[in-house]
């Protein structure tokens, strides 16, 4: 009975005021549909009247040309911005784009405009289903000048990676784990930043599935990577793996939006990279123990409960999780917060990287107990930092302060109950 009462409690003060007891508020759904239509019109106007900015498009097309001409050695696939550093899915996606657009920018912008609307629709679905925000706050998802630019004026591959990631999240909140992980793996094959979601996703899978189920889901995701990379793995495997999955890349200090206040010598040092990695992993463990697994007795209590009867591999694979279904809010919270921790601890964030977490920002702000005016100020402050070009020591320091403020707000907020009593 206590569990049911907790599930019925309003998530925000706004929800408690706006939603009468026993009624279904359809305003978020209607407002989301209106936002999609309005933003589609805005995207069309941007494409028609705002000049396109050439950054990576020519490099993408050069890399695709080399691939289509038969080159399979990743060390020989390059563009005017440098060597190819993305997994094979990137080449397939942009080969399809070149086929559809003839390599021309304007039709590609139209295609990316459609992609923007698809991505926005997926994100709005996540928000409407989790009911964390009041209906009017969904409008913040359409207010980023920088994100509109990333999609339809820059044509970055981040756009495809994040759209696939959000599609995977939609599948996962409906408990379509196998298909969700295949789409997630497809997102990773376009750009590896999606791996920032992987620790959270693994934790959710272990909570929701049997160990055998987790193994087969991960195996399916791995098969996707192998199949996509097969042409390169069969001919030049070392070159492909070392270039496409290079986790040790050092980005240029000038282009960094965060940590611009750090001297360049320290910025490119291994010491800073290792320190941030340790901070990243430690923060994930702390959140897992005290927040995401709070109702299961913490990280170590949860692991003990899952593995205490596993006396052999056979028993480990036959063990079953508790007969409960993870709530949509919990799934989205863990994934968005886990990714945001990676953003806070990232050594370098380039301008297109804003798309990695912008769509989670309103959700994260409303997971805090900050007053709404402060939430809006934090949102606008982050947007401001991402629209200062070039970034400065002051703007990057402000961005770090805002990120940490949001993360602390989440830390000190109550933890949602993670389970549904029945499938919804």
UniProtKB/TrEMBL annotation:
It catalyses: an alpha-D-Man-(1->2)-alpha-D-Man-(1->2)-alpha-D-Man-(1->3)-[alpha-D-Man-(1->6)]-beta-D-Man-(1->4)-beta-D-GlcNAc-(1->4)-alpha-D-GlcNAc-diphospho-di-trans,poly-cis-dolichol + a di-trans,poly-cis-dolichyl beta-D-mannosyl phosphate = an alpha-D-Man-(1->2)-alpha-D-Man-(1->2)-alpha-D-Man-(1->3)-[alpha-D-Man-(1->3)-alpha-D-Man-(1->6)]-beta-D-Man-(1->4)-beta-D-GlcNAc-(1->4)-alpha-D-GlcNAc-diphospho-di-trans,poly-cis-dolichol + a di-trans,poly-cis-dolichyl phosphate + H(+). It is found in: Endoplasmic reticulum membrane. The chain crosses the membrane at residues 29-52, 108-128, 155-175, 181-206, 213-234, 272-290, 331-350, 396-414. It is an enzyme of class 2 (transferase). Its EC number is 2.4.1.258. Residues 1-10 have a biased composition (Basic residues). Its main location: endoplasmic reticulum. Keywords: Endoplasmic reticulum, Glycosyltransferase, Membrane, Transferase, Transmembrane, Transmembrane helix. This is dolichyl-P-Man:Man5GlcNAc2-PP-dolichol alpha-1,3-mannosyltransferase. It comes from Panicum miliaceum (Proso millet).
């Amino acid at each position: 009975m206590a569990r049911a009462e907790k599930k019925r409690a309003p998530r925000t003060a706004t929800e408690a005021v706006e939603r009468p007891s026993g009624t279904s508020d359809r305003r978020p759904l209607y407002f989301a549909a209106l936002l999609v239509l309005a933003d589609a019109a805005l995207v069309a106007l941007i494409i028609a009247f705002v000049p396109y900015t050439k950054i990576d498009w020519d490099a993408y097309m050069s890399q695709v040309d080399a691939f289509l001409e038969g080159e399979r050695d990743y060390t020989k696939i390059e563009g005017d911005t440098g060597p190819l550093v993305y997994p094979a899915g990137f080449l397939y996606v942009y080969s399809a784009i070149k086929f559809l657009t003839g390599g021309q920018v304007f039709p590609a912008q139209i295609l990316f405009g459609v992609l923007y609307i698809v991505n926005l629709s997926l994100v709005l679905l996540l928000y409407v289903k989790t009911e964390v925000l009041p209906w009017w706050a969904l409008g913040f998802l359409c207010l980023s000048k920088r994100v509109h630019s990333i999609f339809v004026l820059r044509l970055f591959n981040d756009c495809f990676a994040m759209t696939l990631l959000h599609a995977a999240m939609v599948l996962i909140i409906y408990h379509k784990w196998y298909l969700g992980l295949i789409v997630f793996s497809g997102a990773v094959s376009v750009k590896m930043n999606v791996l920032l979601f992987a620790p959270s996703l693994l934790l959710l899978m272990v909570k929701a599935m049997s160990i055998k189920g987790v193994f087969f889901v991960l195996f399916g995701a791995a098969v996707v990577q192998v199949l996509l990379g097969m042409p390169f793995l069969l001919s030049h495997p070392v070159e492909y793996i070392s270039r496409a999955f290079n986790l040790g890349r050092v980005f240029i200090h000038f282009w960094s939006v965060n940590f611009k206040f750090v001297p360049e010598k320290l910025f490119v040092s291994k010491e800073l990279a290792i320190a941030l990695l340790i901070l990243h992993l430690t923060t994930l463990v702390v959140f897992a123990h005290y927040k995401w697994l709070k109702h299961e007795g913490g990280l170590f209590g949860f692991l003990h409960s899952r593995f205490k009867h596993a006396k052999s591999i056979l028993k480990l694979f036959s063990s079953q999780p508790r007969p409960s279904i993870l709530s949509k809010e919990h799934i989205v919270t863990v994934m968005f917060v886990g990714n945001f921790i990676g953003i806070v601890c990232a050594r370098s964030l380039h301008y297109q990287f804003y798309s990695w977490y912008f769509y989670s920002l309103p959700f994260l702000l409303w997971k805090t107990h900050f007053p709404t005016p402060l939430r809006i100020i934090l949102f606008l402050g982050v947007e401001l930092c991402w629209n200062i070009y070039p970034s400065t020591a002051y703007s990057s320091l402000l961005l770090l302060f805002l990120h940490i403020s949001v993360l602390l707000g989440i830390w000190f907020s109550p933890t949602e109950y993670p389970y549904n009593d029945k499938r919804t």
